[in-house]
Amino acid sequence: MRALILAEARLWIGTPYRHQASVRGAGCDCLGLIRGVWRALYGAEPEQAPPYGPDWAARGGGEILLDAARRWLIPAEAGEPGDVLVFRYAPDTPASHCAILSGPSHMIHAMQGRAVCESALVPWWRRRIAGAFAFPDA
Description:
Layout (H helix, E strand, L loop, with lengths): L1 H10 L10 E2 L3 E2 L1 H13 L21 H9 L1 E2 L8 E4 L9 E7 L2 E4 L7 E4 L2 H4 L2 E6 L4
Antiparallel strand pairs: 1-2, 3-8, 4-5, 4-8, 5-6, 6-7
Helix pairs in contact: 1-2
């Protein structure tokens, strides 16, 4: 299953960043990538993502992303390739970014102004991990 997760996530590499989108090749944001991989693996998404502005976390949006991960994914202690990582940009802010771990030191994610890419999971990112989660049956 983890090989399927990574293969699907890599198909999204190069997809342009589009806020709230989740269409491989056309556009997605970080959550849209996770949603798209979910659809490829399981079919329909388990819940519809609520509308969210680009600055929802900065405005005290609550732990919407982390809570959704806890509802639909399986908590993972260390994180293995194929797991979803959830990040918070600052200690006192809600988690607001997610990625798929692609190896011990790399992740696949979408960031504003960039296409989906596989990048290094450098110490800056590691310090900001708020949780690691496995897809069901991974």
